[in-house]
Amino acid sequence: MTTSLAIVLALVLFLALLMMIEAGYRLTRRGAMTSAAAVTVGGVTGGVSLLMGLVLAFSFSNAGVRLDYHRSLAVMEANAIATGWARIDLLAEPDQAPLRGLFRRYLDARIRAHEALPKVKEYDALLMEGTALRQVIWERMSAAVRASPELGTLVIPPINAMADAAINRKVAVHTHVTEMTIAFMIGLVLLGALLIGSSGAEKHGRLWPYRCIFAAMTAVAVSVIVDMEFPQTGFAGTRAADALLVELRRSMG
After folding, report:
1. Residue 235 has what pLDDT?
2. 144-152: long-range contacts (C-beta < 8 A, 24 or more apart)?
3. Are 241 and 71 in contact (CB under 8 A)?
4. Three-state DSSP state, 146
5. Residues 64, 59: Cα–Cα separation, whole Å
6. How confident is the model at residue 108 (pLDDT cuts 50, 70, 90)?
7. Are 169 and 77 in contact (CB under 8 A)?
8. What would you report as the CA-atom Rg of the chain, rounded to the nearest whole angstrom?
9. Is the pLDDT of residue 230 over 80?
10. Tell me, what's the pLDDT at 201?
11. What's the pLDDT score for residue 5?
């Protein structure tokens, strides 16, 4: 999700919540609600509000965990590439220059891949380019240490770590809360707004400051949750972690 889409989602949801509160208010005012009905509506409103709070809390927590995982994977990948780059110095002089060139090209492909998000097709295409380069790095590195198995125990593990980090980041990019879950969360807050408007119709009237506070806080909470599910381009991004790859590339010359 881009930053602009996150803002649009929050604004649209804010207006929709206010409309649902007003709809609940008008529907209740139009019909004569008895005292018993008012008690029932109040009980249902309390139950839905409790469920709404639990769903938002768990969704926020899970989205935060996934966001932290995205960031940790970026750090792990930067460390793996940096280690592999440093251990090229252990190889024979003729093998170093070709491998350094491959490392630069590989890191360029990885950076471009994550800069391409949220364009998933372009991201996947750049991933294939990076995978092909990593395979060439593996072959060159294996050939360079074939005569010295002891050296292979030092230079091969970082290549494996690079592959693991790339695969884990790909899975993380494609792993999000389901669309059905997001639809349920949005539907639940809209239903809660309808019931809140209905429960306040008989006694309190239109309390616009409280309506706006509820609508604003709920809309922001939902939009932040959705934004954290797509951390590459939204407010809650992984830019600081991704910048490690860019800084590493600059250090390679």
Report:
1. 65
2. 144/91, 144/92, 144/95, 144/99, 145/91, 151/90, 151/91
3. yes
4. coil
5. 8
6. very high
7. yes
8. 26
9. no
10. 65
11. 75
Question: CB–CB of 123/173 below 8 Å?
Answer: yes
User: For the whole model, what pTM was predicted?
Assistant: 0.78
Cβ-based neighbours of 28, under 8 Å, separated by 6 or more: 41, 197, 198, 199, 201, 202
From CA 119, how far away is CA 129, in angstroms rounded? 16
User: Considering only 34-48, 143-157, 189-203, 215-229, which range has the smallest mean pLDDT?
Assistant: 34-48
Residue for token pair 């990948």? 77
Q: Hey, what are 230's tokens? A: 């797509």
Task: Give 35 or 244, the one with higher predicted confidence.
Answer: 244
**Burial grade of 2 (CB within 10 A; 0-12, 13-18, 19 or more):** middle
Of 2, 176, 177, 172, residue with least CA distance to 76:
172
Residue 181 — pLDDT band, cuts 50, 70, 90?
confident
Say what angle helices 239-252 and 35-86 make with each other, to 10 degrees.
10
Instruction: Give dist(CA 122, CA 81) in Å, integer.
Output: 22
**What pLDDT score does 115 carry?**
82
Whether residue 237 contacts residue 228, with contact meaning beta carbons closer than 8 Å, is answered with no
